[in-house]
Design brief:
Elements lengths: L2 H10 L6 E9 L2 E10 L14 E11 L4 E15 L12 E15 L3
Antiparallel strand pairs: 1-2, 2-3, 3-4, 4-5
């Protein structure tokens, strides 16, 4: 029976809605894009006094013809997290708090057929 596991999950986590929005501007064969995303805290209460909200911004430019297309995009994401690398027999175990910062650059080349 998974009843106890399901009850523990229900007590720890909450339903969330991930938000994403963006837009594209077209000028002749050129495409210009921008966007934002927000992934809220999955826990009902903050764990270790750290909010685990993750945010991202993106921007891109593209060129499209009937024979090929090229897109260049960059995505920057940030957020915080924590973990306990090991447990010890004391009232408090060591805690690691860290900030996550990620940058990605993507190049896409395509040939529609």
């Amino acid at each position: 029976s998974y009843t106890s596991d399901n009850d523990k999950i229900k007590s720890l986590y909450q339903s969330v809605v991930n938000l994403r929005f963006g837009g594209e501007f077209r000028y002749n064969q050129f495409r210009f894009r921008g966007g934002y995303s927000l992934m809220p805290e999955p826990f009902k209460t903050e764990q270790n006094d750290v909010s685990r909200v993750i945010q991202s911004t993106s921007a891109g430019i593209g060129y499209r013809t009937q024979k090929f297309y090229v897109d260049l995009a960059t995505i920057y994401s940030w957020g915080n997290n924590s973990y306990r690398p090991y447990r010890v027999n004391t009232s408090t175990s060591p805690l690691v708090n860290y900030s996550q910062r990620n940058s990605n650059i993507l190049l896409t080349v395509g040939f529609p057929f």
